[in-house]
Hints:
This protein is mainly beta. Helices cover 11% and strands 37% of the residues.
Amino acid sequence: MTVAFLFGALGALALVTRTGCTDNANGLGSDGVPELDYTDVDLGLTQRGPHFDIAYSKNVTALVGKTAQLNCRVHDLGNRTVSWIRHRDIHLLTSGRMTYTSDQRFISVHNPHTEDWILKIRFPQRRDSGIYECQVGTTPPIGHRMFLSVVEPLTTILGGPELFINTGSTINLTCVVQHSPEPPPTIRWTHSDEEINYDSPRGGVSVITEKGETTTSHLLVQRAKAPDSGRYTCAPANANPRSVLVHVLSGEHPAAMQHGGQLRLQYPLSAALLSVIVTLMGC
């Protein structure tokens, strides 16, 4: 009876707070200004249970073969258990710090001084892409789903696998890196398996790289000669390398030859800009 009376009194207090103890049908205060309509009064009686911090529990894009981590941040966890479930086959992967799968690539990581529960996947493959759920053992359980996308960056050299060019023309090789979660930190160019030296006595060799969602690297070799023939390889730091075989010819005109030494570009850096750069370098 006492508890019922207490809640009844609190309800009446909330009602008084909303109405101001007035019989005001039009919602106007004594000064004629509309009163605020308090649709919810927090009396401090609600206890918050475990809840997810969405800002720190996001979808992840990872590279094939590079360790992937899905992070789940849970506030006010208390003594509940956090589990990770793979939706593809509704498979319980981990519970707490324990692993419940024979696939030892999956590991649960938790630092007791944080609220983060991490599912670590070693050597991920494209088949590992899909929905993973971080679940808290409340009654009923609550969960937050995240999508893991495992991608393999694609490297291409435009015009390959073979290019033919006249002696004295400019070799213009364009390497394109796509589907990478982040731009490659570096892109190495090699000629016949030796890294190209842009400061060599030969001169006239330069590289121009544009990083972005699609990264392009342009290798320019001016005044091509027979020794410039051979295999050129573009090797991004976070993607597979790609090669092209270049033939520097005298007087022959194969159908696949670059016209005037310039390959038509399909990516952001325009052919006109490259032509200007080549001209300036030749001065």
